[in-house]
Structure formats: structure tokens, C-alpha cells
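for the recovery benchmark. C-alpha cells below, seq after
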């Protein structure tokens, strides 16, 4: 029963109800997206501490990109989702953020 309620809430949130939830919807979507991004980072960049890289990717993703990634938490990660995460990871601001987080240097 709890799973059914959670899936209903996630579906509602990811299908456009997030605008009605305001900042709570944003937090929920970002949290769902972080789980997906963390798994992609761990598989695509083995040996890298995924948590700070995940934070940088989420911080540099647009709202619509976060929603697209968060959908994968419900329906499963596709190649398109993985490609989107890798694309965001390769952006200059994301790489600067990751370098700063992982190496302690400011670029």
C-alpha cells in the first residue's frame, strides 16, 4: 500500500503537478534525480566519489532536465537519461564544480 501511494505521488509530481507543490515539488524532484544521477556517475565514472559530482550535475541542470532525470527514478533509466547526465557532466561549469569538490582547487 505504501509503495502504491509513493508511486502515485511520484507520478503526480513528475507529470506536472510539481508546479502546484512549489518548492516542495522542486526538492522532491531534485532528490529523485540525485538518486538516478548518482547511479549513472558511479557506472560511467568508476573510482570517482559520486556524491560531489552528483551535486554538481544537479546544480548545473535546468528545471526541465531535473524533471526528465527524476522521471527515470519511476520508470527506469534509459540511454537518453544516461546521455543527458553525461552531457550535463561535461559542461564547463559542472566540470569546474566537480574539480573544486574533488580536488579542492578553484578553476
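predicted aa per position
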Amino acid at each position: 500500500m505504501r509503495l502504491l501511494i509513493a508511486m502515485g505521488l511520484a507520478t503526480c509530481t513528475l507529470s506536472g503537478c510539481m508546479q502546484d507543490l512549489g518548492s516542495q515539488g522542486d526538492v522532491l524532484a531534485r532528490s529523485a534525480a540525485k538518486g538516478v544521477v548518482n547511479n549513472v556517475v558511479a557506472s560511467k565514472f568508476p573510482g570517482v566519489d559520486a556524491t560531489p559530482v552528483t551535486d554538481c550535475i544537479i546544480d548545473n541542470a535546468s528545471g526541465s532536465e531535473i524533471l526528465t532525470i527524476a522521471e527515470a527514478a519511476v520508470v527506469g533509466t534509459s540511454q537518453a537519461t544516461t546521455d543527458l547526465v553525461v552531457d550535463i557532466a561535461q559542461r564547463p561549469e559542472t566540470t569546474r564544480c566537480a574539480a573544486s569538490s574533488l580536488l579542492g582547487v578553484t578553476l
